[in-house]
Design goal:
By secondary structure, the chain is an alpha/beta fold. Helices cover 13% and strands 32% of the residues.
C-alpha cells in the first residue's frame, strides 16, 4: 500500500481537476466492466434471491485539520433515509456498519484529483463494507465511485432531496451511466457533439481510473456503441440494458412536464428523441430522478450475490424505529449546574442509537453547540457557559432505519454551583487525597446534621459518566471510601456529589500511574 501511495503521488500531474464553482454531477467514467458484460450475456445463469439484501456501509466524515466542518449527523440520517427509499424497489437495504469515523484532514476534505481520493481510501477503508466518504469537494464533482476503493460524496450534494448517494452506489454495484462515452460531450479528444446532428455510431472515452483495479501508468481508452432509438442494438450499446432508453446527455439537466429532457437528440439513424429523466443513473435533476429500471435492479442484486458475497455476511433484519423518545430530565426551563448536566430520556421502540443535539438557538442547525451519537438513554455533558439558556433534543435510529424525527426541544438554564452549602444538612465535605494512584479509592470526609443519601458520580474530562453509586451518611462525622474503576487512565476527573434535593458539589481528582 505504501508503494501504491508513492506511485499515486508521482503521477498526480496526470489527473487533476480544478475546483469548480458548479460541481460536475458525477466524476465516475466507468464502462461496462467484464462482470456486467458476462451477466448481460446470460442473466438467467447468475444467482438470484427473493429476499431483502442487507449491505454494510462504513461512513467517513471529513473535516478540516482543525476538526471543523464535518457533515452533520442529522443530514447524514436524512441522506440515509433517502438512499434506502431509492433502493426500496430493488429490495436492497443499506445499513450503518460500525462507528461513524471522523477524519480531520483539510487536503482530503477538498482534494483536487480522484487519485488523491484513492490514496485517502486506501489508507482509511474498512474491509468487507462499502466505504463512503462525505467531504467538501471530491475533485470538483458531486461524487464519484472508484471500483477498487470506495465512494466520495460532496456534502452539498447529499441532502434529503438528493440522489447522488444512490447514483454512486449504483456504480458500485456495476451500473454505468446510460450515456456511456458521452461524459465529455462526445468522443475522447473531440469537440462536444451538436445534438441536432445524427450521433456517431460509437464514442470513445477515457476510463483509466475507473477500472476494477487501479492502473496508473497507462491511458485506457475504450469504445461504446451509441444506442439506437429502435432498440436494435440495446443489448450491447451504451449501458447494455434494453429498458433504459437512449441518452446522450452528460450535463445536469432539468426535466420537462413529461419527465423528459428539454434537449432533443438525434440517434445515428436520424431519429429524434428526448432522454428519460426518471432514471437515477442519468444526469437529470434530483426532483425528476426517482428509480432504477427492472434490468438495472436485477443486475445490482446479481452483482451482490455473485461478485460481492463478502458484503452479505449479516442478513439480520432490524425492525423500524417506532415512536419518539420522551425527554425526562432536566425538566423544561430547569436551572442546572453548568458543570454537571445530565440529559436523560425514555427510549423509542427498536432504537439502538440516539442523536443528541444541544444548541443555543431554537432553530438548532445554525447554533448547535454539542452533537453526540449514543447508545444509552442518558448523557453527561461537559462544562457549559454559566448563566446561559440551552436547548436540547433527541433523534432515535438504528443501523438499518434512519427515517425518524427529532423530539420537540426542551430548554435548561446553567448556573454556577460550587460550594458545600448547596448540599442540605452537610456542614463540611472533603475528598482526600485528591491525587490518587490507579486502583486507589477516593475517601470522603463529611460532617452532616441528619441522615442523608448522597449520589456519587465520576465524570471524565470529556463529560463521560464513568461511575454512579450512592453512599449513606449518618449524623456526625463520616468517612467513606469510593472504589474507582480499576481501568482509569492517568488524567483529570470530576467527582460529583448530589443529594436528594438536587444540590451538587464537585471536586477535581487527578489519577496517576
Amino acid at each position: 500500500m505504501a508503494r501504491l501511495a508513492v506511485c499515486i503521488s508521482l503521477v498526480f500531474f496526470l489527473f487533476s481537476s480544478a475546483q469548480a464553482q458548479t460541481p460536475n454531477p458525477c466524476g465516475t467514467q466507468m464502462g461496462r466492466n467484464n462482470w456486467l458484460k458476462r451477466y448481460q450475456q446470460a442473466p438467467e445463469s447468475f444467482p438470484k434471491s427473493n429476499t431483502t439484501l442487507y449491505v454494510p456501509l462504513t461512513i467517513h466524515l471529513l473535516g478540516a485539520d482543525s476538526g471543523q466542518g464535518y457533515f452533520s449527523i442529522a443530514r447524514l440520517l436524512d441522506a440515509f433515509c433517502t438512499l434506502n427509499n431509492d433502493y426500496e424497489d430493488a429490495d436492497i437495504r443499506y445499513y450503518l456498519e460500525g462507528d461513524i469515523l471522523y477524519l480531520a484532514n483539510s487536503f482530503w476534505n477538498s482534494h483536487p484529483s480522484v487519485l488523491d481520493g484513492a490514496a485517502m481510501m486506501f489508507e482509511n477503508n474498512v474491509a468487507n463494507t462499502i466505504n463512503c466518504y462525505f467531504l467538501a469537494d471530491p475533485a470538483g464533482n458531486c461524487g464519484y465511485n472508484l471500483p477498487y476503493a470506495g465512494i466520495a460524496l460532496r456534502k452539498e450534494c447529499s441532502d434529503a432531496a438528493d440522489h447522488t448517494w444512490a447514483h454512486e452506489l449504483g456504480h458500485a454495484l456495476s451500473l454505468p451511466h446510460p450515456f456511456i462515452g458521452w461524459e465529455n460531450g462526445g468522443s475522447y479528444g473531440n469537440p462536444p457533439h451538436n445534438y441536432n446532428n445524427p450521433a456517431p455510431p460509437f464514442v470513445t472515452y477515457d476510463y483509466t481510473y475507473f477500472k476494477d483495479t487501479l492502473i496508473i501508468d497507462t491511458l485506457i481508452i475504450d469504445t461504446a456503441y451509441v444506442e439506437l432509438v429502435d432498440g436494435s442494438n440495446c443489448t450491447f450499446a451504451a449501458d447494455g440494458f434494453c429498458d433504459t432508453s437512449p441518452d446522450y446527455l452528460a450535463d445536469r439537466w432539468n426535466c420537462n412536464a413529461n419527465s423528459e429532457s428539454p434537449t432533443q437528440q438525434t440517434d445515428p439513424l436520424g431519429i429524434q428523441f428526448r432522454s428519460d429523466g426518471t432514471l437515477i443513473m442519468s444526469y437529470s435533476d434530483d426532483a425528476c430522478a426517482n428509480r432504477f429500471s427492472p434490468e438495472q435492479i436485477a443486475a445490482m442484486r446479481a452483482n451482490l450475490l455473485d461478485e460481492k458475497p463478502h458484503l452479505l455476511y449479516n442478513q439480520t433484519a432490524e425492525a423500524p424505529v417506532n415512536g419518539s423518545p420522551l425527554l425526562l430530565q432536566p425538566a423544561n426551563a430547569e436551572n442546572v449546574p453548568f458543570n454537571q448536566i445530565e440529559l436523560q430520556w425514555q427510549g423509542a421502540q427498536n432504537a439502538t442509537h440516539y442523536l443528541v443535539q444541544v444548541s443555543r438557538l431554537t432553530t438548532f442547525p445554525g447554533g448547535i453547540t454539542l452533537e453526540y451519537v449514543v447508545t444509552d438513554t442518558l448523557i453527561t455533558l461537559p462544562e457549559l457557559d454559566v448563566n446561559k439558556t440551552y436547548y436540547w433534543r433527541v433523534r432515535p435510529f438504528n443501523r438499518q432505519f434512519h427515517c425518524t424525527e427529532f423530539t420537540a426541544y426542551r430548554s435548561f438554564h446553567t448556573e454556577e454551583v460550587t460550594s458545600v452549602g448547596s448540599l442540605s444538612a452537610v456542614e463540611s465535605l472533603k475528598v482526600a487525597p485528591n491525587i490518587l494512584t490507579a486502583g486507589q479509592p477516593a475517601v470522603l470526609h463529611a460532617e452532616v446534621s441528619q441522615q442523608k443519601t448522597l449520589q456519587i458520580m465520576l465524570v471524565s474530562a470529556e463529560g463521560r459518566l464513568l461511575l454512579h453509586t450512592t453512599i449513606e451518611m449518618v449524623p456526625g462525622n463520616n468517612r467513606a471510601e469510593v472504589a474507582l474503576p480499576a481501568t482509569l487512565s492517568s488524567g483529570l476527573y470530576l467527582l460529583q456529589i448530589k443529594d436528594e434535593a438536587g444540590g451538587v458539589y464537585q471536586e477535581k481528582l487527578s489519577v496517576v500511574k
